[in-house]
Amino acid sequence: MKKIIFLLVLTALVYKAGAQEKQIQIETQNSALILKAGKNGLLYQTYLGAKLNGNSGYDALSKENTKSFVINDGNPLNNLRHLAYPTYGTDNLFESAIRVTHNDGNPSLELTYVNHRVDKIDDNTTETIIKLKDQVYPVEVTLHYKAFYNENIVEQWTEIVHHEKKPIMLYNYASSMLHFDADRYWLTQFHGDWAKEARMLETELTSGTKVIDSKLGVRTNMYQTPVFFLSLNSKAEENSGEIVAGTIAWSGNFKLAFELDNKNSLRISSGINPFASEYSLEPGKVFTTPSFIYTFSNKGKGQASRNLHKWAGKYGIKDGEKPRLTLLNNWETTFFNFDEKKLTEMFADTKTLGVDMFLLDDGWFGNKYPRSGDKSGLGDWQATKTKLPNGIGFLIQEAEKTGVKFGIWIEPEMVNPKSELYEKHPDWVLKLPNRPESYYRSQLVLDLSNPKVQDFVFKTVDDIMQTNSGVAFFKWDCNRMMTNAYSAYLKNQQSHLFIEYTNGLYKVLDRIKTKYPNLPMMLCAGGGGRTDYALLKYFTEFWASDNTDPFNRVFIQWGYSQFFPAFSICNHVTSWGNQSIKFKTDVAMMGKLGFDINVKELKPNELKYCQDAVANYKRLNPVIWHGDMYRIVSPYDESRAVLMYVDNAKSKAVLFSYTLHPLYDPQYNLVRLQGLDPNKSYKVEEINLMPEAKKTLEESGESYTGDYLMNVGLRVSSSKVETSVVLEITQI
Ligand code: DGJ
């Protein structure tokens, strides 16, 4: 022990004598994160905010009394404020980014700056890599910051490695720690449950720690979406104010902690939830945290969302720049009750509607235990012979003959105890020894930490692809959380389960993406139970909610639109809710449009409306999917929602106005449009009308300057309950 103390003192001194201050600038077009290795060797965050002109501003940050870089203020412990990656065990009094116990039982870590480099990845992207290490124990931590210049996004993650003789125990392993100094802080979280996902709730942070996390193991976003807005000094506004929008790209348990301290400084840590997940790290093995992705905007939430949407299109979501498939799904029309005849008739309906693809949902598989309800069959991925005697291949051929593509539903991480898979491999299931099995929707979770189970899940997709050429799309579902979870494979390392399950899932998805790079897939988890940017690397889109009532849906889609682009949010027109087909379709068109209705039950004028709406959607989807989104009237503020998309050239725009549940005869104000070019002239036309219906917008067909539309505006909203108006705005 004496030797260690001596070494500590010596190395600290040596380091101090030799150390130079080093400033590290991580910049995008409009934002900057500045780090500085102090003379004491510790790495601090000195600034996070709008980019400053030139370097002189950043140099001034190093002055010792700068508010955001408090050192030497009389209290030695303040040396540890704003550490870029605070450790536990020495003199840190607040949330730590990392906590380890060494081989000798010593529970402390102190990280000092070693070096850094900046790699240019391409003209838009740089990666700053900063190496830190403990001066006493052979533990190294590398901080990675990838800056996407045009999109104003920073992606941050951490690698931890050690060279002790035996494993060290990791108790905390954050992806990031960011610091803020404002007078007040408001946090917007996105929470909910099945059928009420992504509800926005803004509260002022008070002293102490607020945690947004998940302990569900899988389908982890059922109650909390892993995203937040932090607004500095005042409540978040759509078009003004300093905002940080952050999200953790991890599909297992996650944790976002917001700690407001005695000096009114805020630190935000993000990462895997270390709850019940201490990790024994082998010597030489690198522990890589997931990415924390954030953007800073001083133009409010709207700009932050647009930054994220642009980034997601280019980098965040699989095939973000490629077109999506419109579709007809059979789930709400048939549930489990279908046969070949019903399905082939629905192919014709798909064609009649004008959408691209038919999507066959749950209920097509299982022979010994057919999937005639949700109690059996999961795990047995062969078509049920009694229902589909000619198999999936025949269905694909029939769909192709009708001129539509064919997609298929799977839930490959799960198993019903009533299945051949369970009978053959009871040890592939997560379940506690000495306790009863714990069911949810009559199913159990497969143990994806086990490589054999990973092979099985990969093979589920591979077999469907290999035996049935022409499958154009997968909907990958996940309908339960983990309970009573224990992995027979992990034996005495049960605290690795939540992490290894998630890594196992990524391994499977990596294999699928490598073998089938052009296969679009929808991420679904009993509604919006999985909405994170780690899985979206493998999926082209996600199912936002099983709640398809268009009134509720406006709020759900509004919530997701804050962090995810329109092309990734799947919205289907269904029979849920008794609103008009126009209202339902107009609401679904705000994102990625699909249908899940019995087309045969549509009246002729409804069908004609749908066909026109689909044609309009196909014409306008480049604007909706890849344009800039402007949220103009929030359903949280008024009894209506108004938003618009504008293409990059500002030559085309689409506006959606949804009237919700106003009091009698609401006197809605004119709506000032946004994002147009003031010097251009635009024709405004109301589209998506029921045949023979009167237009709501009296000025439909008129032309205006962008200046007029943005400063005077139009009366775009109908006053009737649950009605909608869609405007196409075209430069003339
Ligand atoms: C839950 C999904 O959210 C639904 O869309 C549907 O696919 C069912 N599962 C099928 O079991």
Give a structural overview:
The protein is of the alpha+beta class. Helices cover 22% and strands 30% of the residues. The protein is built from 13 helices and 36 strands. Strands 5, 6, 7, 8, 11, 12, 14, 15, 19 and 20 form a 10-stranded antiparallel sheet that branches. Helix 11 (581-588) links the parallel strand 29 (569-574) and strand 30. Helix 5 (340-353) packs parallel to helix 6 and helix 11 packs parallel to helix 12. The longest helix has 23 residues, at 604-626. It is globular, with a radius of gyration of 27 Å. 51% of the residues are buried. Residues 1-19 and 64-72 have low confidence and may be disordered. The chain binds (2R,3S,4R,5S)-2-(hydroxymethyl)piperidine-3,4,5-triol.
Structural class: alpha+beta
The end-to-end span amounts to 80 Å
Q: What's the tally of helices?
A: 13
Q: How would a crystallographer describe the biggest sheet?
A: 10 strands, antiparallel
Give the total of beta strands. 36
User: Which percent bin holds the helix content?
Assistant: 10-25%
Shape: globular
The unique ligands bound to this protein are:
(2R,3S,4R,5S)-2-(hydroxymethyl)piperidine-3,4,5-triol
**Percent in strands:** 25-35%
Give the mean pLDDT: 94
| Uncertain runs | 1-19, 64-72
- Specify Rg, calculated over alpha carbons: 27 Å
What descriptive keywords fit this protein?
binds (2R,3S,4R,5S)-2-(hydroxymethyl)piperidine-3,4,5-triol; 732 residues; eight-stranded parallel β-barrel; disordered N terminus; alpha+beta
Task: Show the helix and strand layout.
Elements: H1 2-18, E1 22-27, E2 31-37, E3 43-50, H2 56-60, E4 98-101, E5 111-122, E6 125-134, E7 139-148, E8 153-162, E9 168-173, E10 176-181, E11 185-191, E12 199-204, E13 208-213, E14 224-232, E15 243-249, E16 254-260, E17 265-272, E18 279-281, E19 287-288, E20 291-297, H3 300-316, E21 327-329, H4 331-334, H5 340-353, E22 357-360, H6 391-402, E23 405-410, E24 414-415, H7 420-424, E25 444-445, H8 451-467, E26 471-476, H9 497-515, E27 521-523, E28 541-543, H10 550-561, E29 569-574, H11 581-588, E30 592-596, H12 604-626, E31 628-633, E32 640-646, E33 652-659, E34 681-687, E35 703-705, H13 706-711, E36 723-731
Parallel strand pairs: 21-22, 21-30, 22-23, 23-26, 26-27, 27-28, 28-29, 29-30
Antiparallel strand pairs: 1-2, 2-3, 4-9, 5-6, 6-7, 7-8, 8-19, 8-20, 9-18, 10-17, 11-12, 11-14, 13-16, 14-15, 15-20, 16-17, 24-25, 31-32, 32-33, 33-36, 34-35, 34-36
(2R,3S,4R,5S)-2-(hydroxymethyl)piperidine-3,4,5-triol (DGJ) is lined by residues 331, 361-362, 409, 477, 479, 524, 526-527, 543, 546.
